[in-house]
Specification:
Elements: E1 12-15, H1 19-30, E2 33-39, H2 44-48, E3 54-62, E4 65-74, E5 93-97, H3 100-108, E6 113-114, E7 119-120, E8 130-137, E9 143-149
Parallel strand pairs: 1-4, 5-9
Antiparallel strand pairs: 2-3, 3-4, 6-8, 7-8, 8-9
């Protein structure tokens, strides 16, 4: 197999409608800290191929990963993508937690809702290092899978 030019993963990015509320979720529910928050230079429009795009940006770090949040102020004709987990292109982040029920409750307080059922894994019938799992999503489409370890 040919060697890749990829050195490491730098970040995962979410486009959001309210950067402050989303930062609060990542800080209070997932333990991230703001590394940088700024207005993105005007070059963003050229970079992404959308004329006149302007955005605020935040980078958050925690738990060995880095999240970028982008909140676009223009152009005015932006939409919210609506998908289900089975749709091609759908994404989620999976995080280990000590207590999945508590994580869901905390996320619910930040505008997230349970996507399906809260599942307690029956290790007698399914080989998994996970005791429980739940998926939550907010109105921006950010989807988080909480995985409670044994």
């Amino acid at each position: 197999m040919e060697q890749s030019d990829c050195v490491s993963l730098n970040h995962t990015c979410f486009t959001v409608t309210d950067i402050g509320k989303t930062i609060q979720f990542f800080e209070e529910c997932l333990g991230y800290q703001v590394e940088l928050r700024q207005q993105v230079p005007e070059v963003i429009g050229r970079l992404i191929g959308v004329a006149d795009a302007t955005a605020e940006q935040a980078f958050l770090t925690g738990n060995g990963s880095r999240i970028e949040l982008l909140c676009y102020q223009s152009p005015p004709n932006r939409t919210v993508i609506s998908s289900t987990p089975v749709d091609t292109g759908s994404v989620h982040i999976g995080v280990y937690v000590d207590d999945a029920k508590a994580a869901v409750a905390k996320a619910t307080g930040h505008g997230f809702a349970l996507l399906g059922d809260f599942i307690e894994v029956d290790s007698d019938h399914f080989s998994s290092p996970v005791n429980a799992v739940a998926w939550v999503r907010n109105s921006d489409g950010i989807t988080v899978e909480f995985l409670e370890m044994e």
